[in-house]
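Minutes, project check-in
Item: structure for the 450-residue chain
Input as provided by the requester:
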Amino acid sequence: MSGSHLGQRLGRRQFLTSAASLAATATAISYFPWTNSAFANLSPSDRPRIGCIGVGGMGRGDAYEHKQFGDIVAICDVDKEHADKVNAEEGVASGKADVYGDYRKVLERSDIDVVSVVTPDHWHVKIAIEALQAGKHVFCQKPLTLTLEENQLIRNACRKHADRIFFVGTQQRSDNERFLRAVNLVRKGLIGDVQKITVGINGGDVGGPFAKSDPPANLDWNMWLGQAPLVDYVEQRCHGNFRWWYEYSGGKFTDWGAHHVDIAQWAIGEDGEGSGPVEIDGTDAKHPVPFENGYPLKDDSFNSSHDFNVIARYASGVEMHITSRGDNGILFEGSKGRFFVNRGKISGQPIEENWDKDQYGPEQLMELYKGKPFEGHKQNFYRCLTEGGLPVSDVYSHVQTMNTCHLAAIAARLNRVIKWDPKAENIVGDDQAATFFARTPREGFEIPRV
């Protein structure tokens, strides 16, 4: 059945909510025949209607990709220049989308099926949960959360709204030439028992002191801050540089860590609920400004760690070094061999000698893709809208990644070893470290608890 015939048989809302009774259970069965062009071939009345919330650099790129599968009818950004520019682009909306400065205007529209959330990190969970409550399917960029508590909040919301597809933008999970091959090599035991993993994520930027000023007229600074503390506008706090401030992000621990720690834990089977490290050593971490009790003493300079080697230890005996030093990428070391992988290459004896010959192909890729065929990142998301099941970048494994990333940042901020109970999901025997589990949001920007 072609995509156009499918559109004739199912109205848009029925077509997109047919996953409702299926999404809670991953399956290898295709409930509706699907091709990459299926959505493109649907009539305008049947194509998914998409709202893009946050259209800066990454959000703009995601908007172009979403456009392949549906019609972008709403664009929202607290920076009006961002929103107007992306709306005008032919590959996105050709000036036909409605433009908003308040994301709630997007969520209240009953005609929107999918929202793409590509805001600064500290906004992700609030918008994502409210989108689920509004009945939307959600694509949300990484890192999904700002705190350990937010991991629990978004997981609970996804369980309650299991009829919605929730997809995290960790695109390395869709790289079959490098990262999926690496995961398969380790999971199949081809390098023996893993003993050490080195996760190179580079260091955060160093900069400041920066000047305070009035925000530009096109930017709603109060809305940009959201749940974060109210402070004077500093250009370098905003847009792409927000990730170098612990107020809005976790620095490189959550930025690149959301990618590489994810692949590492997926490979060694530490990506399920109740798994993860039991101890995190942050004694070897430096920050660009002085800290006291885990908080920066200056408010005019980048404050996330720029030089670190944080060690996560697992009950299995595996050590994972999350480091700013050396090459960006992941080095797996096992009892039989070692190899390195990043976005540019995969190398080492197991690769040169093809240790995974006859053990890596469509069958293994389908296993990694939770019973679905290997394909591009956004394709997997939109396939799940029609077939149900969990996407390759699911919320449940991602919060396990974020637990480790947040713990690394907390240990680094305090420059000490902290212990973690992965089953109870709490910091053990350290009352001060435990205060970093959650953050009280600014009044008026509370996150829903479901």
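Outcome recorded: The CA atoms of residues 274 and 445 lie 30 Å apart.
No further action items on this chain.
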